[in-house]
Amino acid sequence: MSGTDHLRDTRASYDVIAADYAEQLQDALVSMPWDRAVLTGFADLVRATGNGPVADVGCGPGRLTGYLHGLGLDAFGIDLSPRMVEIARRAHPELRFEVGAMPDLELPDAALGGIVAWYSTIHVPDDLLPAAFADFRRALAPGGHLVLAFQVGDESLHLTEGYGQPISLNFRRRRPERVAELLTEAGLDVRARFVREPETYPFHQERTPQAYLVARRPLH
Q: Can you name the residues that pair with 158 across neighbouring β-strands?
């Protein structure tokens, strides 16, 4: 699949399921203590450096953007899906949301104190992931932090149905060790790695372990 096909299919799929997705997951963090803990720790790191706003890349309907804002961060959201961005703007009118795509987010150099990529790089093809990480480093200010969340595994999952709608979405599961290698190759220092076992939530049954990685752009 070409990069153009990947963007087209991912955008169209999330446009179709945006309303249902937003409704089902709007209160998901209440049931997810590990996710809240990682995000809170990330927010502490960003506040400690105090060197810029935070981009929630692949923000969807803005639920994490709003949560980060509540933790005291100057957070804004970027998403490939115009429909998701529309919903996010309506749900959080006080925050900024933009349409954008990895690997080129068109953000200014060294402008960000932090980047959150929460289950968004899972849709980036393997051959484009190094460029996405390089773009993250470029946009981070020295000392700025990146946090990733993704499913652990070796096989990709392709879904053709979501919330009763026809879609075409690829979910790329990856090994934390390999993702850490790619971050290092992009010039980011990996500071923390955390893997947890699958959980069953009221809204979702996880199929694989879940990984969280925190990396930092070096000061020099």
A: 170
Calculate mean pLDDT across residues 68-79: 97
E strand or H helix at 160, and its extent?
strand 156-162
Q: Is the peptide bond before 166 cis (omega within 30 degrees of 0)?
A: no
- Please tell me the distance from the alpha carbon of residue 119 to that of residue 112, in angstroms, as a whole number: 20
- What digits encode the pLDDT tens for the residues 77-86? 999 999 999 9
DSSP state of 108: P
Residue-wise pLDDT for 176-185, tens only, equals 999 999 999 9
Cα distance between residue 41 and residue 214, in whole Å = 10
Return the axis-axis angle of helices 82-91 and 3-25, rounded to nearest 10°: 30
DSSP 15-33: HHHHHHHHHHHTTGGGG-H
For residues 38 and 151, the answer to whether their CB atoms sit within 8 Å is no
Please say whether the beta carbons of 59 and 84 come within 8 A.
Answer: yes
Q: Please tell me whether the overall predicted TM-score, pTM, comes out greater than 0.90 for this model.
A: yes
Specify the 3-state DSSP secondary structure of 176. helix
